[in-house]
Predict the 3D structure of the following.
Amino acid sequence: MSAELFALRSRWQAVCRTDRAPVLRIGLLASYTVDPLVPYLGLALHDAGLPATVDVGPFNQVVQQCLAGDGFPATVRPDVLLVAQRLEEAGPAGAGWVEELLAGADAAVAAARRQGALLVYVLPAIPEDRPCGYGDAVDADGVTAAATAARERLRDRLAADPGVLLVDAEEAVRAVGARHAYHPALFRFAKIPYTEEVFAALGATTAGLVRRWYGAAPRALVLDGDALADPAALLPVLRELRAAGLAVTLRAGGPGWWSAEGCPELLPVLDGWATDARPLPAQLAEIAAELDLAPAQLVLVTAAPDAGPGVPGATVRLGADPAGWADALRAARLTDRLPDRRWTGGATVATAAASADPPAGLSLDDFVSSLDVRVAYRPVTADDVPPVAELVARAHDFALCPAPPAGVLAGRAGDLLAVEVRDRLGDYGTGGLVAVRPDGDRWTVDLFSLSCPVLGKGVEAAVLRELADRAAAAGAGEVRVRWTDTGRNGTAARFLSSLDGLGGTPVPVRAVRVDAAGPVAAEPAGALE
Amino acid sequence: MVAGVLEVDPAEVTDESGPETIPTWTSLRHLQLVVTLEEVYGLSFAFEEIRDVRSVGALRDVLRAKGTVPA
Protein backbone atom coordinates (compact mmCIF):
# COMPACT_ATOMS: atom_id res chain seq x y z
CA MET A 1 0.00 0.00 0.00
CA SER A 2 1.56 3.29 -1.04
CA ALA A 3 1.86 6.25 1.28
CA GLU A 4 -0.77 8.02 -0.80
CA LEU A 5 -3.30 5.20 -0.35
CA PHE A 6 -2.40 4.87 3.30
CA ALA A 7 -3.21 8.57 3.67
CA LEU A 8 -6.56 8.04 1.96
CA ARG A 9 -7.42 5.15 4.27
CA SER A 10 -6.43 7.24 7.28
CA ARG A 11 -8.57 10.10 6.07
CA TRP A 12 -11.54 7.73 5.66
CA GLN A 13 -11.05 6.61 9.24
CA ALA A 14 -11.08 10.24 10.32
CA VAL A 15 -14.23 10.89 8.29
CA CYS A 16 -15.95 7.93 9.92
CA ARG A 17 -15.17 9.33 13.35
CA THR A 18 -16.90 12.61 12.57
CA ASP A 19 -20.54 13.27 13.22
CA ARG A 20 -21.47 13.04 9.56
CA ALA A 21 -24.92 12.55 8.11
CA PRO A 22 -24.84 9.89 5.37
CA VAL A 23 -27.21 10.46 2.48
CA LEU A 24 -26.56 7.13 0.74
CA ARG A 25 -26.46 3.54 1.85
CA ILE A 26 -24.15 1.39 -0.24
CA GLY A 27 -24.19 -2.42 -0.19
CA LEU A 28 -21.25 -4.41 -1.57
CA LEU A 29 -21.74 -8.02 -2.64
CA ALA A 30 -18.92 -9.90 -4.34
CA SER A 31 -17.63 -13.33 -5.16
CA TYR A 32 -14.44 -12.33 -3.33
CA THR A 33 -13.39 -10.34 -0.29
CA VAL A 34 -14.35 -6.82 -1.30
CA ASP A 35 -13.77 -5.07 2.02
CA PRO A 36 -10.71 -3.13 0.82
CA LEU A 37 -12.99 -1.18 -1.51
CA VAL A 38 -14.84 0.42 1.40
CA PRO A 39 -12.46 3.27 2.32
CA TYR A 40 -11.77 4.35 -1.25
CA LEU A 41 -15.41 4.29 -2.32
CA GLY A 42 -16.62 5.84 0.90
CA LEU A 43 -14.07 8.63 0.83
CA ALA A 44 -14.60 9.44 -2.85
CA LEU A 45 -18.35 9.70 -2.30
CA HIS A 46 -17.79 11.79 0.80
CA ASP A 47 -15.59 14.19 -1.13
CA ALA A 48 -18.22 14.36 -3.84
CA GLY A 49 -20.81 15.55 -1.37
CA LEU A 50 -22.51 12.16 -1.12
CA PRO A 51 -21.54 10.85 2.33
CA ALA A 52 -22.43 7.19 2.53
CA THR A 53 -22.49 4.19 4.80
CA VAL A 54 -20.95 1.14 3.19
CA ASP A 55 -21.93 -2.40 4.18
CA VAL A 56 -20.30 -5.58 2.90
CA GLY A 57 -22.32 -8.73 2.27
CA PRO A 58 -21.31 -12.37 2.63
CA PHE A 59 -18.41 -13.57 0.56
CA ASN A 60 -19.08 -15.49 -2.69
CA GLN A 61 -22.85 -15.76 -2.30
CA VAL A 62 -24.03 -13.29 -4.92
CA VAL A 63 -26.87 -15.38 -6.31
CA GLN A 64 -27.94 -16.82 -2.98
CA GLN A 65 -28.05 -13.45 -1.22
CA CYS A 66 -29.88 -11.77 -4.09
CA LEU A 67 -32.53 -14.49 -4.32
CA ALA A 68 -33.13 -15.04 -0.61
CA GLY A 69 -36.01 -13.13 0.90
CA ASP A 70 -33.81 -12.33 3.89
CA GLY A 71 -30.60 -11.93 1.95
CA PHE A 72 -28.12 -9.08 2.13
CA PRO A 73 -29.94 -6.63 -0.20
CA ALA A 74 -33.24 -7.22 1.58
CA THR A 75 -31.61 -6.73 4.96
CA VAL A 76 -29.48 -3.69 4.18
CA ARG A 77 -31.92 -2.07 1.74
CA PRO A 78 -29.18 -0.12 -0.03
CA ASP A 79 -29.64 2.89 -2.25
CA VAL A 80 -26.79 1.53 -4.34
CA LEU A 81 -26.08 -2.19 -4.62
CA LEU A 82 -22.61 -2.94 -5.99
CA VAL A 83 -22.17 -6.49 -7.23
CA ALA A 84 -18.81 -7.86 -8.33
CA GLN A 85 -18.20 -11.33 -9.65
CA ARG A 86 -14.90 -12.78 -10.81
CA LEU A 87 -14.57 -15.31 -13.58
CA GLU A 88 -12.15 -17.28 -11.44
CA GLU A 89 -15.06 -18.17 -9.12
CA ALA A 90 -17.34 -19.15 -12.00
CA GLY A 91 -15.91 -22.56 -12.76
CA PRO A 92 -13.59 -23.71 -15.53
CA ALA A 93 -12.84 -21.33 -18.40
CA GLY A 94 -15.23 -21.69 -21.28
CA ALA A 95 -18.75 -21.07 -22.42
CA GLY A 96 -20.02 -21.91 -18.93
CA TRP A 97 -18.71 -18.59 -17.68
CA VAL A 98 -21.46 -16.74 -19.53
CA GLU A 99 -24.23 -18.73 -17.89
CA GLU A 100 -22.72 -18.48 -14.43
CA LEU A 101 -22.21 -14.75 -14.53
CA LEU A 102 -25.52 -13.99 -16.18
CA ALA A 103 -27.25 -15.91 -13.38
CA GLY A 104 -25.55 -13.63 -10.88
CA ALA A 105 -26.23 -10.50 -12.88
CA ASP A 106 -29.90 -11.36 -13.35
CA ALA A 107 -30.30 -12.09 -9.65
CA ALA A 108 -28.58 -8.80 -8.84
CA VAL A 109 -30.83 -6.83 -11.18
CA ALA A 110 -33.90 -8.37 -9.61
CA ALA A 111 -32.65 -7.77 -6.07
CA ALA A 112 -31.78 -4.15 -6.80
CA ARG A 113 -35.20 -3.49 -8.32
CA ARG A 114 -36.96 -5.07 -5.38
CA GLN A 115 -35.17 -2.63 -3.09
CA GLY A 116 -35.48 0.34 -5.44
CA ALA A 117 -31.70 0.47 -5.58
CA LEU A 118 -29.31 1.51 -8.29
CA LEU A 119 -27.22 -1.52 -9.31
CA VAL A 120 -23.54 -0.98 -9.96
CA TYR A 121 -22.24 -4.13 -11.60
CA VAL A 122 -18.48 -4.64 -11.84
CA LEU A 123 -17.53 -6.35 -15.08
CA PRO A 124 -14.94 -9.01 -14.28
CA ALA A 125 -11.32 -8.61 -15.21
CA ILE A 126 -9.74 -11.09 -17.59
CA PRO A 127 -8.07 -13.74 -15.40
CA GLU A 128 -4.30 -13.65 -15.20
CA ASP A 129 -4.04 -17.42 -14.86
CA ARG A 130 -3.80 -18.61 -18.46
CA PRO A 131 -2.55 -22.19 -18.90
CA CYS A 132 -1.04 -21.50 -22.32
CA GLY A 133 0.58 -18.26 -21.20
CA TYR A 134 1.55 -16.27 -24.26
CA GLY A 135 -0.21 -18.89 -26.36
CA ASP A 136 -3.56 -17.87 -24.94
CA ALA A 137 -3.69 -15.04 -27.47
CA VAL A 138 -3.83 -17.53 -30.33
CA ASP A 139 -6.35 -19.85 -28.67
CA ALA A 140 -9.89 -19.11 -29.81
CA ASP A 141 -11.13 -21.14 -26.84
CA GLY A 142 -8.57 -19.77 -24.42
CA VAL A 143 -9.03 -17.84 -21.20
CA THR A 144 -8.87 -14.42 -22.80
CA ALA A 145 -11.35 -15.38 -25.51
CA ALA A 146 -13.78 -16.95 -23.07
CA ALA A 147 -13.45 -14.05 -20.66
CA THR A 148 -13.97 -11.48 -23.39
CA ALA A 149 -17.08 -13.32 -24.59
CA ALA A 150 -18.47 -13.45 -21.06
CA ARG A 151 -17.70 -9.80 -20.42
CA GLU A 152 -19.40 -8.69 -23.61
CA ARG A 153 -22.46 -10.83 -22.91
CA LEU A 154 -22.71 -9.18 -19.52
CA ARG A 155 -22.28 -5.74 -21.02
CA ASP A 156 -24.89 -6.52 -23.65
CA ARG A 157 -27.26 -7.75 -20.97
CA LEU A 158 -26.76 -4.91 -18.51
CA ALA A 159 -25.72 -1.79 -20.42
CA ALA A 160 -29.22 -1.31 -21.81
CA ASP A 161 -30.78 -1.50 -18.39
CA PRO A 162 -31.54 2.00 -17.13
CA GLY A 163 -31.23 0.90 -13.52
CA VAL A 164 -27.69 -0.37 -13.91
CA LEU A 165 -24.27 1.24 -14.06
CA LEU A 166 -21.24 -0.71 -15.19
CA VAL A 167 -17.75 -0.46 -13.76
CA ASP A 168 -14.97 -2.41 -15.43
CA ALA A 169 -12.47 -4.24 -13.22
CA GLU A 170 -10.31 -4.82 -16.26
CA GLU A 171 -9.90 -1.06 -16.62
CA ALA A 172 -8.82 -0.81 -13.00
CA VAL A 173 -6.27 -3.60 -13.46
CA ARG A 174 -5.01 -1.96 -16.64
CA ALA A 175 -4.71 1.42 -14.94
CA VAL A 176 -2.61 -0.08 -12.18
CA GLY A 177 -0.72 -2.49 -14.39
CA ALA A 178 -0.98 -6.25 -14.06
CA ARG A 179 2.37 -6.45 -12.25
CA HIS A 180 1.03 -4.28 -9.45
CA ALA A 181 -2.56 -5.48 -9.44
CA TYR A 182 -2.13 -8.78 -7.65
CA HIS A 183 -0.53 -10.00 -4.45
CA PRO A 184 -0.52 -13.77 -3.97
CA ALA A 185 -0.71 -13.63 -0.18
CA LEU A 186 -3.81 -11.44 -0.23
CA PHE A 187 -5.74 -14.06 -2.14
CA ARG A 188 -4.25 -17.08 -0.45
CA PHE A 189 -5.03 -15.91 3.05
CA ALA A 190 -8.06 -13.67 2.64
CA LYS A 191 -9.45 -14.24 -0.85
CA ILE A 192 -8.63 -10.66 -1.77
CA PRO A 193 -7.89 -10.85 -5.49
CA TYR A 194 -6.42 -7.40 -6.03
CA THR A 195 -4.03 -4.96 -4.43
CA GLU A 196 -5.11 -1.77 -2.71
CA GLU A 197 -4.21 0.15 -5.87
CA VAL A 198 -6.87 -1.71 -7.85
CA PHE A 199 -9.48 -1.19 -5.16
CA ALA A 200 -8.60 2.50 -5.08
CA ALA A 201 -9.13 2.71 -8.84
CA LEU A 202 -12.43 0.83 -8.58
CA GLY A 203 -13.56 3.09 -5.77
CA ALA A 204 -12.75 6.25 -7.68
CA THR A 205 -14.50 5.02 -10.82
CA THR A 206 -17.54 3.80 -8.96
CA ALA A 207 -17.86 7.02 -7.02
CA GLY A 208 -17.48 9.01 -10.23
CA LEU A 209 -20.31 7.11 -11.87
CA VAL A 210 -22.58 7.23 -8.83
CA ARG A 211 -21.87 10.92 -8.48
CA ARG A 212 -22.95 11.54 -12.05
CA TRP A 213 -26.01 9.32 -11.64
CA TYR A 214 -27.17 11.48 -8.78
CA GLY A 215 -26.48 14.64 -10.71
CA ALA A 216 -23.56 15.65 -8.52
CA ALA A 217 -21.02 15.72 -11.35
CA PRO A 218 -18.46 18.55 -11.44
CA ARG A 219 -20.02 21.65 -12.95
CA ALA A 220 -17.45 24.35 -12.34
CA LEU A 221 -13.72 24.76 -11.83
CA VAL A 222 -12.34 27.08 -9.20
CA LEU A 223 -8.78 28.06 -10.01
CA ASP A 224 -6.71 28.64 -6.88
CA GLY A 225 -5.13 31.91 -7.94
CA ASP A 226 -2.79 32.03 -4.95
CA ALA A 227 -1.16 28.77 -5.99
CA LEU A 228 -1.25 29.12 -9.78
CA ALA A 229 1.56 31.51 -10.53
CA ASP A 230 1.24 31.09 -14.29
CA PRO A 231 -2.45 30.68 -15.12
CA ALA A 232 -1.81 31.37 -18.79
CA ALA A 233 -0.40 27.85 -19.04
CA LEU A 234 -3.92 26.59 -18.51
CA LEU A 235 -5.71 28.72 -21.08
CA PRO A 236 -6.04 26.11 -23.87
CA VAL A 237 -7.40 23.40 -21.60
CA LEU A 238 -9.68 25.85 -19.81
CA ARG A 239 -11.22 26.81 -23.14
CA GLU A 240 -11.74 23.11 -23.91
CA LEU A 241 -13.39 22.42 -20.58
CA ARG A 242 -15.56 25.48 -20.85
CA ALA A 243 -16.69 24.39 -24.31
CA ALA A 244 -17.56 21.01 -22.79
CA GLY A 245 -19.93 22.70 -20.36
CA LEU A 246 -17.86 23.38 -17.27
CA ALA A 247 -17.91 26.87 -15.79
CA VAL A 248 -14.50 28.36 -14.96
CA THR A 249 -14.04 30.55 -11.91
CA LEU A 250 -11.20 31.80 -9.75
CA ARG A 251 -10.49 32.51 -6.11
CA ALA A 252 -7.54 34.32 -4.57
CA GLY A 253 -6.63 35.81 -1.23
CA GLY A 254 -6.89 39.41 -2.29
CA PRO A 255 -7.63 41.82 -5.14
CA GLY A 256 -3.92 42.24 -5.77
CA TRP A 257 -3.97 39.01 -7.72
CA TRP A 258 -5.34 40.77 -10.77
CA SER A 259 -2.05 42.58 -11.30
CA ALA A 260 -0.24 39.29 -11.93
CA GLU A 261 1.11 38.41 -15.33
CA GLY A 262 -1.20 36.37 -17.53
CA CYS A 263 -4.41 37.63 -15.99
CA PRO A 264 -5.64 39.66 -18.95
CA GLU A 265 -5.78 36.53 -21.12
CA LEU A 266 -7.52 34.58 -18.38
CA LEU A 267 -10.30 37.06 -17.75
CA PRO A 268 -12.39 36.21 -20.85
CA VAL A 269 -12.73 32.53 -19.84
CA LEU A 270 -13.89 33.27 -16.29
CA ASP A 271 -17.54 32.89 -15.32
CA GLY A 272 -16.98 34.34 -11.88
CA TRP A 273 -14.43 35.02 -9.16
CA ALA A 274 -13.89 35.76 -5.51
CA THR A 275 -10.69 37.64 -4.76
CA ASP A 276 -10.74 38.84 -1.19
CA ALA A 277 -9.47 37.96 2.26
CA ARG A 278 -12.30 35.60 3.22
CA PRO A 279 -11.52 31.96 4.03
CA LEU A 280 -11.56 29.52 1.11
CA PRO A 281 -14.84 27.79 2.11
CA ALA A 282 -16.64 31.14 2.20
CA GLN A 283 -15.32 32.06 -1.23
CA LEU A 284 -16.42 28.70 -2.64
CA ALA A 285 -19.84 29.07 -1.11
CA GLU A 286 -20.28 32.43 -2.79
CA ILE A 287 -19.11 31.12 -6.16
CA ALA A 288 -21.48 28.14 -5.90
CA ALA A 289 -24.36 30.43 -5.01
CA GLU A 290 -23.63 32.76 -7.93
CA LEU A 291 -23.58 29.83 -10.35
CA ASP A 292 -26.65 28.25 -8.72
CA LEU A 293 -24.69 25.09 -7.93
CA ALA A 294 -24.12 22.97 -4.86
CA PRO A 295 -20.66 23.49 -3.31
CA ALA A 296 -19.90 19.82 -3.98
CA GLN A 297 -20.22 20.49 -7.70
CA LEU A 298 -17.17 22.75 -7.62
CA VAL A 299 -13.68 21.42 -8.30
CA LEU A 300 -10.77 23.30 -6.78
CA VAL A 301 -7.78 23.41 -9.12
CA THR A 302 -4.55 24.14 -7.32
CA ALA A 303 -0.81 23.63 -7.37
CA ALA A 304 -0.57 23.70 -3.60
CA PRO A 305 0.12 20.24 -2.18
CA ASP A 306 -1.94 20.75 0.94
CA ALA A 307 -4.92 22.74 -0.30
CA GLY A 308 -8.33 21.18 -0.34
CA PRO A 309 -9.00 19.33 2.93
CA GLY A 310 -12.23 20.54 4.42
CA VAL A 311 -13.38 21.93 1.12
CA PRO A 312 -16.56 20.45 -0.34
CA GLY A 313 -16.19 18.79 -3.71
CA ALA A 314 -13.06 17.46 -5.33
CA THR A 315 -9.60 18.92 -5.60
CA VAL A 316 -7.31 18.57 -8.60
CA ARG A 317 -3.66 19.05 -7.72
CA LEU A 318 -1.58 20.06 -10.72
CA GLY A 319 1.93 19.71 -9.38
CA ALA A 320 4.74 22.24 -9.17
CA ASP A 321 5.67 22.49 -12.86
CA PRO A 322 3.32 24.70 -14.91
CA ALA A 323 4.41 22.82 -18.04
CA GLY A 324 2.49 19.78 -16.78
CA TRP A 325 -0.62 21.58 -15.64
CA ALA A 326 -2.66 21.24 -18.81
CA ASP A 327 -2.07 17.49 -19.07
CA ALA A 328 -2.87 17.02 -15.39
CA LEU A 329 -6.12 18.92 -15.73
CA ARG A 330 -7.13 16.92 -18.81
CA ALA A 331 -6.28 13.69 -16.96
CA ALA A 332 -8.65 14.61 -14.13
CA ARG A 333 -11.55 13.36 -16.26
CA LEU A 334 -13.80 16.24 -15.26
CA THR A 335 -15.92 15.92 -18.40
CA ASP A 336 -16.62 12.20 -18.05
CA ARG A 337 -20.33 11.65 -18.32
CA LEU A 338 -22.99 9.01 -18.53
CA PRO A 339 -24.72 8.29 -21.83
CA ASP A 340 -27.80 10.45 -22.27
CA ARG A 341 -30.15 7.50 -21.75
CA ARG A 342 -28.96 7.20 -18.16
CA TRP A 343 -30.77 10.35 -17.31
CA THR A 344 -34.23 9.02 -18.13
CA GLY A 345 -34.78 8.08 -14.52
CA GLY A 346 -34.94 4.40 -15.28
CA ALA A 347 -38.69 4.16 -15.61
CA THR A 348 -39.29 4.49 -19.31
CA VAL A 349 -37.52 1.47 -20.73
CA ALA A 350 -39.54 -1.73 -20.48
CA THR A 351 -37.31 -4.78 -20.69
CA ALA A 352 -37.39 -8.19 -19.16
CA ALA A 353 -34.77 -6.92 -16.77
CA ALA A 354 -37.13 -4.28 -15.43
CA SER A 355 -39.05 -6.91 -13.51
CA ALA A 356 -38.50 -7.08 -9.79
CA ASP A 357 -39.10 -10.81 -9.89
CA PRO A 358 -36.23 -13.27 -10.07
CA PRO A 359 -35.44 -14.46 -13.58
CA ALA A 360 -37.90 -17.09 -14.77
CA GLY A 361 -37.14 -20.50 -13.33
CA LEU A 362 -34.42 -19.28 -10.98
CA SER A 363 -35.14 -19.77 -7.31
CA LEU A 364 -32.75 -20.00 -4.40
CA ASP A 365 -33.43 -23.72 -3.96
CA ASP A 366 -32.98 -24.32 -7.67
CA PHE A 367 -29.70 -22.49 -7.68
CA VAL A 368 -28.29 -24.31 -4.66
CA SER A 369 -29.42 -27.64 -6.13
CA SER A 370 -27.76 -26.77 -9.42
CA LEU A 371 -24.42 -26.35 -7.65
CA ASP A 372 -24.25 -30.14 -7.23
CA VAL A 373 -22.54 -29.76 -3.88
CA ARG A 374 -20.64 -32.83 -2.69
CA VAL A 375 -19.66 -33.11 0.97
CA ALA A 376 -17.22 -35.74 2.23
CA TYR A 377 -15.86 -36.46 5.67
CA ARG A 378 -12.51 -37.70 6.89
CA PRO A 379 -11.03 -38.28 10.30
CA VAL A 380 -8.49 -35.75 11.51
CA THR A 381 -5.02 -37.08 12.26
CA ALA A 382 -2.50 -35.42 14.53
CA ASP A 383 -0.71 -34.04 11.45
CA ASP A 384 -3.96 -32.47 10.25
CA VAL A 385 -4.57 -30.53 13.44
CA PRO A 386 -2.56 -27.35 12.63
CA PRO A 387 -4.33 -26.62 9.31
CA VAL A 388 -7.79 -27.40 10.66
CA ALA A 389 -7.05 -25.30 13.76
CA GLU A 390 -6.16 -22.44 11.40
CA LEU A 391 -9.45 -22.98 9.56
CA VAL A 392 -11.41 -22.93 12.81
CA ALA A 393 -9.59 -19.80 13.95
CA ARG A 394 -10.64 -17.99 10.76
CA ALA A 395 -14.22 -19.28 10.62
CA HIS A 396 -15.90 -16.50 12.55
CA ASP A 397 -19.23 -16.35 10.71
CA PHE A 398 -20.15 -19.98 11.08
CA ALA A 399 -18.91 -21.29 14.42
CA LEU A 400 -20.61 -22.63 17.50
CA CYS A 401 -18.20 -21.05 19.96
CA PRO A 402 -15.00 -19.05 20.19
CA ALA A 403 -12.21 -20.88 18.39
CA PRO A 404 -10.51 -23.34 20.72
CA PRO A 405 -6.70 -23.35 20.78
CA ALA A 406 -4.90 -25.85 18.57
CA GLY A 407 -3.80 -27.70 21.70
CA VAL A 408 -7.40 -28.39 22.66
CA LEU A 409 -8.14 -29.71 19.19
CA ALA A 410 -5.06 -31.90 19.29
CA GLY A 411 -6.27 -33.37 22.53
CA ARG A 412 -9.47 -34.59 20.97
CA ALA A 413 -8.38 -35.35 17.42
CA GLY A 414 -10.28 -38.62 17.60
CA ASP A 415 -13.59 -36.71 17.87
CA LEU A 416 -12.95 -34.50 14.87
CA LEU A 417 -14.22 -34.82 11.33
CA ALA A 418 -12.88 -32.64 8.54
CA VAL A 419 -15.53 -31.55 6.06
CA GLU A 420 -14.45 -31.63 2.42
CA VAL A 421 -16.56 -29.65 -0.06
CA ARG A 422 -16.69 -29.35 -3.80
CA ASP A 423 -19.31 -28.33 -6.33
CA ARG A 424 -19.50 -27.80 -10.04
CA LEU A 425 -17.65 -24.49 -9.70
CA GLY A 426 -14.64 -25.88 -7.92
CA ASP A 427 -13.06 -27.97 -5.18
CA TYR A 428 -12.86 -26.05 -1.89
CA GLY A 429 -10.84 -28.71 -0.07
CA THR A 430 -11.29 -28.79 3.69
CA GLY A 431 -14.05 -26.30 4.30
CA GLY A 432 -15.07 -27.16 7.81
CA LEU A 433 -14.59 -29.11 10.99
CA VAL A 434 -17.10 -30.79 13.22
CA ALA A 435 -16.70 -32.56 16.54
CA VAL A 436 -19.14 -34.93 18.20
CA ARG A 437 -19.22 -36.39 21.70
CA PRO A 438 -21.30 -39.55 21.87
CA ASP A 439 -22.93 -39.57 25.30
CA GLY A 440 -25.29 -42.47 25.82
CA ASP A 441 -28.45 -41.91 23.84
CA ARG A 442 -27.37 -38.48 22.73
CA TRP A 443 -24.72 -37.18 20.36
CA THR A 444 -23.55 -33.70 21.21
CA VAL A 445 -22.03 -31.45 18.59
CA ASP A 446 -19.90 -28.86 20.37
CA LEU A 447 -17.62 -27.79 17.55
CA PHE A 448 -18.86 -27.03 14.05
CA SER A 449 -17.07 -24.45 11.98
CA LEU A 450 -17.35 -23.74 8.27
CA SER A 451 -15.15 -21.42 6.26
CA CYS A 452 -16.72 -18.62 4.24
CA PRO A 453 -16.03 -20.15 0.81
CA VAL A 454 -18.38 -23.09 1.52
CA LEU A 455 -21.24 -21.11 3.04
CA GLY A 456 -24.46 -20.52 1.16
CA LYS A 457 -24.34 -23.94 -0.47
CA GLY A 458 -26.37 -25.98 1.99
CA VAL A 459 -23.25 -27.55 3.51
CA GLU A 460 -24.31 -26.80 7.07
CA ALA A 461 -27.54 -28.77 6.67
CA ALA A 462 -25.77 -31.59 4.84
CA VAL A 463 -23.31 -32.00 7.72
CA LEU A 464 -26.04 -32.22 10.34
CA ARG A 465 -28.00 -34.70 8.24
CA GLU A 466 -24.88 -36.85 7.97
CA LEU A 467 -24.40 -36.71 11.74
CA ALA A 468 -28.04 -37.63 12.29
CA ASP A 469 -27.62 -40.63 9.99
CA ARG A 470 -24.48 -41.72 11.83
CA ALA A 471 -26.12 -41.23 15.22
CA ALA A 472 -29.11 -43.31 14.19
CA ALA A 473 -26.85 -46.05 12.86
CA ALA A 474 -25.04 -46.07 16.21
CA GLY A 475 -28.29 -46.38 18.11
CA ALA A 476 -28.45 -42.84 19.43
CA GLY A 477 -31.79 -41.09 19.67
CA GLU A 478 -30.86 -37.43 19.31
CA VAL A 479 -28.24 -35.03 17.99
CA ARG A 480 -27.83 -31.90 20.06
CA VAL A 481 -25.93 -28.88 18.76
CA ARG A 482 -24.62 -26.62 21.52
CA TRP A 483 -23.74 -23.11 20.57
CA THR A 484 -23.00 -19.75 22.09
CA ASP A 485 -23.20 -16.21 20.76
CA THR A 486 -19.63 -15.14 19.99
CA GLY A 487 -20.71 -11.76 18.70
CA ARG A 488 -19.53 -12.68 15.21
CA ASN A 489 -21.28 -15.97 14.44
CA GLY A 490 -24.56 -14.53 13.20
CA THR A 491 -24.62 -16.86 10.18
CA ALA A 492 -24.49 -19.90 12.44
CA ALA A 493 -27.04 -18.38 14.81
CA ARG A 494 -29.53 -17.81 12.00
CA PHE A 495 -29.08 -21.33 10.69
CA LEU A 496 -29.41 -22.94 14.12
CA SER A 497 -32.49 -20.88 14.88
CA SER A 498 -34.24 -22.53 11.95
CA LEU A 499 -33.18 -26.11 12.56
CA ASP A 500 -36.83 -27.13 12.70
CA GLY A 501 -36.78 -26.79 8.95
CA LEU A 502 -34.12 -29.47 8.60
CA GLY A 503 -36.70 -32.25 8.77
CA GLY A 504 -36.43 -35.75 7.41
CA THR A 505 -33.59 -36.86 9.68
CA PRO A 506 -33.76 -40.32 11.28
CA VAL A 507 -33.23 -38.81 14.73
CA PRO A 508 -34.10 -35.28 15.87
CA VAL A 509 -31.44 -32.58 15.56
CA ARG A 510 -31.84 -29.85 18.17
CA ALA A 511 -29.88 -26.65 18.77
CA VAL A 512 -29.27 -25.54 22.33
CA ARG A 513 -27.86 -22.14 23.06
CA VAL A 514 -25.55 -22.03 26.04
CA ASP A 515 -23.93 -19.05 27.65
CA ALA A 516 -20.21 -19.44 27.84
CA ALA A 517 -17.29 -17.10 28.12
CA GLY A 518 -14.70 -19.64 27.12
CA PRO A 519 -14.29 -22.15 24.30
CA VAL A 520 -17.03 -24.74 24.49
CA ALA A 521 -14.72 -27.42 23.19
CA ALA A 522 -12.41 -26.87 26.14
CA GLU A 523 -15.12 -27.71 28.63
CA PRO A 524 -15.99 -31.23 29.74
CA ALA A 525 -19.10 -32.67 28.14
CA GLY A 526 -22.26 -31.35 29.70
CA ALA A 527 -20.46 -28.74 31.76
CA LEU A 528 -22.30 -25.89 30.14
CA GLU A 529 -25.80 -27.18 30.47
CA MET B 1 2.07 2.60 10.77
CA VAL B 2 0.71 -0.37 12.71
CA ALA B 3 -1.68 1.88 14.57
CA GLY B 4 -2.82 3.48 11.33
CA VAL B 5 -3.62 0.19 9.62
CA LEU B 6 -5.31 -1.22 12.71
CA GLU B 7 -7.15 2.02 13.44
CA VAL B 8 -6.01 2.25 17.06
CA ASP B 9 -4.26 4.83 19.18
CA PRO B 10 -0.49 4.52 18.68
CA ALA B 11 -0.11 4.52 22.45
CA GLU B 12 -1.92 1.18 22.53
CA VAL B 13 0.66 -0.53 20.34
CA THR B 14 3.61 -2.31 21.94
CA ASP B 15 5.88 -5.13 20.83
CA GLU B 16 3.56 -7.52 22.62
CA SER B 17 0.49 -6.30 20.74
CA GLY B 18 -1.15 -8.88 18.51
CA PRO B 19 -4.49 -10.24 17.39
CA GLU B 20 -5.25 -11.31 20.94
CA THR B 21 -4.76 -7.83 22.40
CA ILE B 22 -5.98 -5.57 19.59
CA PRO B 23 -9.55 -6.42 18.53
CA THR B 24 -9.18 -4.71 15.16
CA TRP B 25 -6.22 -6.96 14.28
CA THR B 26 -8.32 -9.24 12.09
CA SER B 27 -6.94 -11.51 9.41
CA LEU B 28 -7.83 -8.87 6.82
CA ARG B 29 -6.00 -6.11 8.67
CA HIS B 30 -3.12 -8.50 9.26
CA LEU B 31 -2.67 -8.82 5.52
CA GLN B 32 -3.04 -5.11 4.96
CA LEU B 33 -0.38 -4.54 7.59
CA VAL B 34 2.00 -6.96 5.90
CA VAL B 35 1.38 -5.49 2.45
CA THR B 36 1.89 -1.98 3.78
CA LEU B 37 5.19 -2.97 5.38
CA GLU B 38 6.26 -4.63 2.13
CA GLU B 39 5.51 -1.45 0.23
CA VAL B 40 7.19 0.88 2.69
CA TYR B 41 10.33 -1.18 3.20
CA GLY B 42 10.52 -2.60 -0.33
CA LEU B 43 10.65 -6.27 0.66
CA SER B 44 8.50 -9.39 0.55
CA PHE B 45 7.20 -11.61 3.31
CA ALA B 46 7.16 -15.37 2.72
CA PHE B 47 3.83 -17.16 3.11
CA GLU B 48 5.07 -18.76 6.30
CA GLU B 49 6.12 -15.41 7.71
CA ILE B 50 2.72 -13.91 6.93
CA ARG B 51 1.00 -16.82 8.57
CA ASP B 52 3.20 -17.13 11.64
CA VAL B 53 3.79 -13.51 12.63
CA ARG B 54 1.44 -12.86 15.54
CA SER B 55 2.74 -9.70 17.22
CA VAL B 56 4.34 -6.35 16.56
CA GLY B 57 7.58 -7.64 18.01
CA ALA B 58 7.53 -10.59 15.63
CA LEU B 59 6.93 -8.22 12.74
CA ARG B 60 9.89 -6.18 13.87
CA ASP B 61 12.02 -9.34 14.04
CA VAL B 62 11.09 -10.28 10.49
CA LEU B 63 11.92 -6.82 9.22
CA ARG B 64 15.22 -6.84 11.06
CA ALA B 65 16.08 -10.25 9.62
CA LYS B 66 15.49 -8.83 6.16
CA GLY B 67 17.95 -6.05 6.78
CA THR B 68 15.65 -3.22 7.76
CA VAL B 69 15.63 -1.45 11.08
CA PRO B 70 12.09 -0.29 11.85
CA ALA B 71 11.69 2.45 14.41
